[in-house]
Design a protein that fits this description.
It is built from two helices and three strands.
Length: 80
Amino acid sequence: MLVVTRRQGEKIVIGNDIEIIILDIKGEQVKIGLNAPKNVTIYRNEIYEEIIKNNKEAATTPSVDVIMQLKKIANKSSKK
């Protein structure tokens, strides 16, 4: 991990096209601005973790279509 110290108004550049600007510092809170291309997705960490959690749940939870197909199969085999 790279650790840097910045003051209000100073910037950090990532690659050729991402810029982080320190906008304001009040106590323990730092307000930052991000300039990045529109194709770069930026999330707060807590939002990103929620997305990952939801994606994992969706990948392990059968879809409604799969459940309906299984019910049809079960109904057909119980009628025999």
